[in-house]
Amino acid sequence: MASGTALIYDEEMTTHKLLWSDPICDIEVPERLSSSYEQLRSYQLVERCVHVPAREGSEEEILLVHSLEHLEVAKSTQTMNEEELKRVSENYDAFFFHPSTFHCARLAVGATLQLVDAVMSGKVRNGMALVRPPGHHSQRNAANGFCLFNNVAIAAEYAKLKYGLQRILIVDWDVHHGQGTQYIFEEDPRFEGFFFFFNASVSHTFQVGMGNSDYLAAFFHVLLPMAFEFDPELVIVSSGYDSGIGDPEGQMNATPEVFSHLTHFLMQLANGKLCVILEGGYHLKSLGESVCMTVKTLLGDPVPQITGEMAPCLSAVESIQNVRAAHKPYWKWLAYEGKSPFCFVLYLEIWGFIFVLTNLLLLLLKDAEGNDFFSAVLGFILPVAYSYQPNLTVIAVGPNRSLGISGISLLVALLQGLAESRIFAVIEDTEISLMQSVAKALLGASTPPFGIYVPPTQEKVNKIKALRDQFQQEWKMLQCSGKLSDFIFNSYIL
Hints:
Blueprint: E1 5-8, H1 31-42, E2 50-51, H2 59-62, H3 68-76, H4 82-89, H5 101-120, E3 126-129, H6 151-163, E4 168-172, H7 179-186, E5 195-196, H8 212-230, E6 234-239, H9 256-266, E7 274-278, H10 284-298, H11 314-327, E8 351-352, E9 357-358, E10 360-365, H12 372-388, E11 392-397, H13 405-415, E12 423-427, H14 432-442, H15 458-471, E13 490-493
Parallel strand pairs: 1-2, 1-3, 3-7, 4-6, 6-7, 10-11, 11-12
Antiparallel strand pairs: 4-13, 5-13, 8-9
Helix pairs in contact: 1-10, 5-6, 8-9, 8-11, 8-12, 9-10, 13-14
Transmembrane segments: 344-365
GO biological process, one term: epigenetic regulation of gene expression
Domain Histone deacetylase: 28-190, 204-298
């Protein structure tokens, strides 16, 4: 099994910079890259990662998703003077050319593909590419929003062709809608099953000030259930951090710690094959801390505790319902809108001691069958557990369990996002393979594929509905119904 985390960075990508005054583009500075790398060095994370060198993406690789005309325009800027560069840049929305831009953009493409190769070949388990210029706004025939070539779209097409992959999940958690990725695959006549379920356009999304609980609620109630049902062979993240606290673009309140949790969840998919590619992020301190949190999680470090009230705002709840309603016809887990099957017995207790004050979340799993696991854990247990914010997580597995080894291992892995990864498994079972699998999960090993999603029975649907109705006022993260709206993430399934 592959281990290790790749980190790709090339200082050459900092030579792309704005040569004239432009109030829209002046936030896209070389320091976005260099300061993030220096922050990684200060946390001593660079030496813990596997160094993978960047390379220039070839013209053939760029043409996997871009037009020849777009490539030729970009090439022509290498010998232009400042006035010519400015004139060409004005043909695009929020983009600027520098004589080194074409070289830097090719490095960004090549670095992304190097990461895909490292992960798919088994050299590493996962990794992050610090690239610039970013890519998710760039379209087949146009630069846009600081982006020249669509690094992630190229990577997805590259992985499909080179490794024969059938299912690639792209998660874009940048605060801005990655319309370039959407348009590239929507317009491709060879592509079937394009899936886009979060509209992240700033003018149509969450209100200003959204925070950690809103992001987590979206993952619990929309992204993760769809992702597990899809069962991807590779996950690629368009990792923008402009939703981070302090960022002038997003004006959101997501703290760096939440990106650790989002990364942790995605690591449970595709046997751990996860490629994280830098997109936006314009508050240097917030960006650097968020990058570090992401890399620490990729390396397997304990996931930090999230503080503050775990209660998504009304706008987030409405947005989640909008997404669920729009995709109800296409996903089995949504067959019963707003009603996820639940078949576990759940106990929540607070044990108070005079000298030892420990908040304990005790989860006792019983009578779990098949893929009911996903709806139970993602739709109920995780939202309640994150609302509770325990200091210790205990999982008790009884001798008469019906939940399989893969389900128990995945549960252990998912719950490691709680309590700074302090987790204690009590197993009343002598099956060696079960204990080995749980031990591997505790050590951060990739969880095995869970299998094909099986729809729930009506009886189990009714059980979870009753539980949700009973507990959602007390545990706000259970709320996932409301009026129609839009949402902040965008995701694509290839």
